[in-house]
Amino acid sequence: MAAITAKMVGDLRAATGLGMMECKKALVEADGDFDKAEEILRIKSGAKAGKLAGRTAAEGVVTECVKGKVGAVVEINCETDFVAKDKSFLAFANAVAEAVVDSNPGTLEALAETKLASGETVEEARKAVIAKLGENITVRRFDRIETAHDLVTYMHGAKIGVLVEHKGGDAQAIRQVAMHIAASRPQCVSSAEVDPEVVAKERHIYEEQAAQSGKPANIIEKMVEGRVHKFLAEVTLLGQPFVINPDETVEKFLKENNAEIVRFVAFHVGEGIEKKEVDYAAEVAAASKV
Q1: Residue 289 pLDDT more than 70?
Q2: Exposure pattern of 85-124 as b/e (b: 16+ CB <10 Å)?
């Protein structure tokens, strides 16, 4: 068998972006043939993507892209915050956001088959990044707004992304509202958009609570209506106290700036994903007994 040198391993790593040990094993398997080793790694990289698919990816980034009257927000997940800062990972995330704007895929499945500017599909690029970085990487969700109105974005680092469609107002004022959305997480713009079933459920809970007070029916009715009104104010953008000036609501701030929010999209990285708790002390203790 041909001798495997450190330079050969380094050259293969530079060509494929894979780990040193993987490159060394491929060269051994290929009996030192560089081209064959590269082919082996390319074949195995697809299998590697599948092997990692079951691992929890709750870290990652939110990225945005706006071109004129079209904007998109995308969440791409990985396993560790270290990989979330990798240039290859970030380039992939930005390319996916641009593809959403340009191609308007309707589903995640359609997005996976969408061509990036590089010519490869999103799925091909995803597997390539997995092969390079060695972590499970998923395109979790995206949203796209195409409008005749105006768009403003706000990014809080790479962990929160907000895209706002609005009428009137200047960009700075709307950006402040976008910052509020990132901080306060309203569910929708106005009370008219809240699911009637959700309101009915809350009303029932308040009615049951108020009935235990023993107060007259007319008082109970007012108590219930007051609590429902408070609930709607808490979950809607217009009803919330404005984070920059809590003495006024977002609705009042918008009126002062002759602005209207049509809709918004807000993604928080890992929102709703159950993260696996790792007991590193126990892992080290167990390893020391081997």
Answers
A1: no
A2: ebeebbebbbbbbbbbbbbebeeeeebbebebeeeebbee
Q: What is the pLDDT of residues 260-269, one digit of tens each?
A: 999 999 999 9
Q: What is the DSSP string of 215-250?
A: --HHHHHHHHHHHHHHHHHHHBTTTSEETTEEEEEH
State the DSSP code for 277. Answer: P
Give the residue extent of every domain in the chain. 6-52, 53-146, 191-258
Determine contact, residues 64/54, Cβ cutoff 8 Å.
no
Helix (H) or strand (E) holding 192: none
Instruction: Please say whether the dihedral angle defined by the alpha carbons of residues 212, 214, 220 and 226, taken in this order, is positive or negative.
Output: negative
Q: Return d(Cα 262, Cα 237) in angstroms, integer.
A: 11
Place 180 in a pLDDT band, splitting at 50, 70 and 90: very high
CATH 1.10.8.10 fits 6-52, yes or no: yes
Domain 53-146 has CATH 3.30.479.20: yes
